[in-house]
């Protein structure tokens, strides 16, 4: 268990950060002139990009691998999308001051795919550079 936490602790902390930041009352922040339309979607994309990179890096570190298999890639993507969906369901049913939005889940999925793409490109580049 300790080895798992050692590898995945950045992803676990980031998941808690996502849960907090996506479920706190923001007041009138969304109407502030400092934020442009669609800023919320950009934040969702960035949060889940980072989450995917941290989780995938933890998986590679924990399993001492240099790359992800297709099955592992798909499972990580599905897990991350499910996490994003859970955040939206929490916003809809428990944190009623926030609104669930399918566009937020789509932005999450875009960030997840971008993060997975970056992990795949980086891990393949490292793998082939070491040959």
UniProtKB/TrEMBL annotation:
The chain crosses the membrane at residues 12-29, 41-60, 67-86, 106-126. The keyword Lipid metabolism does not apply. Keywords: Membrane, Transmembrane, Transmembrane helix. NCBIfam families: vanZ_1 (NF037970). This is VanZ family protein. It comes from Mucilaginibacter defluvii. The lineage of its organism: Bacteria, Pseudomonadati, Bacteroidota, Sphingobacteriia, Sphingobacteriales.
